[in-house]
User: Which sequence fits this backbone?
C-alpha cells in the first residue's frame, strides 16, 4: 500500500470518531497536507506532514505508517509522530488554560452588581 485516502487515515489513526467527521473536517478546511488545504479524497503517503485542528487542539504530525483499518488506540499511535513544535504549542496552551482555571472558577448565573463593577474595573471599562 503506497497511499490511503486522507479521511480513512485520519479515522484509522483515531483523530476522529467516524470517517464522516474526518471528511467533514477536511471539507471545512481544518486539515492541511504539506501546507495545502486537503480534501477528504487526497492521498496520504509516508512522510507527509499533516496539520489537524480538532477540539483538543492544533496538531502537526508526520505520517509514519499507512492503514485504512481502525484498530486499537495503542496501534493507531504508531501511525504518526507529533512534531516538537506542535508538542511545545500544546504544552503552552495547557499551561495557559491551567492558569486561567486557577484565576477563578466559572460562576453560576448572573454576576452580582459588586462583581460586575469589579470585573469592569479589572478590564478597564469604568
Assistant:
Amino acid at each position: 500500500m503506497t497511499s490511503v485516502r486522507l479521511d480513512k487515515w485520519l479515522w484509522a489513526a483515531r483523530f476522529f470518531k467516524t470517517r464522516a467527521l474526518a471528511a467533514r473536517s477536511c471539507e471545512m478546511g481544518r486539515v492541511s497536507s504539506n501546507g495545502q488545504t486537503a480534501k477528504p479524497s487526497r492521498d496520504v503517503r509516508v512522510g507527509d506532514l499533516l496539520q489537524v485542528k480538532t477540539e483538543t487542539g492544533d496538531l502537526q504530525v508526520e505520517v509514519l505508517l499507512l492503514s485504512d483499518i481502525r484498530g486499537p488506540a495503542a496501534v493507531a499511535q504508531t501511525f504518526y509522530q507529533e512534531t516538537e513544535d506542535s508538542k511545545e504549542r500544546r504544552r503552552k496552551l495547557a499551561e495557559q488554560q491551567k492558569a486561567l482555571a486557577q484565576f477563578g472558577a466559572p460562576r453560576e448565573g448572573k454576576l452580582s452588581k459588586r462583581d460586575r463593577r469589579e470585573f469592569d474595573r479589572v478590564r478597564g471599562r469604568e
Observations:
- Residues 84 and 96 are 19 Å apart (CA to CA).
